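Hey,
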Amino acid sequence: MLERSLVLFKPDAVDRGVIGEIITRFERVGIKLVGMKLLVSERDTAEKHYREDIAERYGQHIREMLLDMIMTGPVVAMVWEGIDVIALIRKLVGATYPAEAAPGTIRGDYSHISKDFARSKDLTVENLVHASGNSDEATIEIAIWFKPEELLDYKPGFTKRTLME
């Protein structure tokens, strides 16, 4: 099924300078980038993204830490499109906690902090990337970060065809 997914490169990914390498991984599997922007998240955007259900599942303190983290610096927000793209991106990204992520995944290759270490220091786990977990979540999240007119609908290779016409 053709679908779209939100991917956020969090401030730790931008700070580390690995966004180009990670984008390349998405491009190599053949999914299509249909929207992208660099921004610093406002509090209201962060609160819409890290909804109240986060506090219900993990506690308000964790939610506040996530809100603070996402606002610490630039974020690269992207929308990727492809067949079963949500599951594919989740597979590429790896387990939420980097120490549990398999080698070959983005988190397994580019981060390593365990949840136990982060908790012992009262830190958020820097895991570089957020990726929508399912289609309902993707629809909600894409609408938080993008206006409909900011997303493109095009066929791959359109530039070559346009130049040939």
